[in-house]
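Researcher: Please translate sequence to structure tokens.
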Amino acid sequence: MKWIKAFFILFYRMWFYILVAVPIIVLFPLLLVSTSREKFYPFFFKLARIWAKIVLYGMGFYPVVKRLAHLQPEKSYMLVANHTSMADIMLMLAIVKKPFVFVGKKELAKFPVFGFFYKRTCILVDRKNTKSRQDVFYSAQRRLKQGNSICIFPEGGVPDDLSIVVDSFKDGAFRLAIEHKIPVVPMVFYDNKKRFSYSFFKCSPGKMRVKVLNFLETEHLEQKDKRALREKTRNLILETLEKKRFLVRTTA
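Model: Translation complete:
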């Protein structure tokens, strides 16, 4: 019985990468054009949302969202969430309609197919390189002026220890939010670790619940407040996860 289960899990994992790659290959000409100029980014974002939903629904993942606050079309935001799965990127794209740009580690650019467009559309950061971290702020400023929001997973990666509920947060997202006076939008991803964990045998189809918490305003904050903002955001996400409460349910 264990061998049968292992076979299906292996197939399920392989199916994920097929779903990631095939739509990109099919849409390649459109993706290539839409990433050739930053002014085409809104069109690319629409394609990215289609891709994300193909992956999620193709895996049997169903986003279910509760929103305590709603994004306004004319404003920019700093989107943050707990990071537990490769599916976090797809889920964020699926539930947020307003165009945003990911800030992510440059290592993901090495992934075949996906990495080609990742490095053309995202703000890449090498956390070991001080200049790279500084360049992020200039790139983010340019994207914000274009009307986009920014998304960062402030844990900086998925913890190796899967027993950790929420790892410590890094400063970058909160420094950027204060610098550009944009609200922080904390989001709680309840089920991604269960649905598609980095632990090979921990995966299953089902609901992916998301709670969008009340925004944290930064208009009156200074850089000296970034650590307090960072910890407040982390505590909100951690406390929400630990309470495990998800009451009002509306589909994304």
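Researcher: Any highlights?
Model: The longest strand covers residues 61-67.
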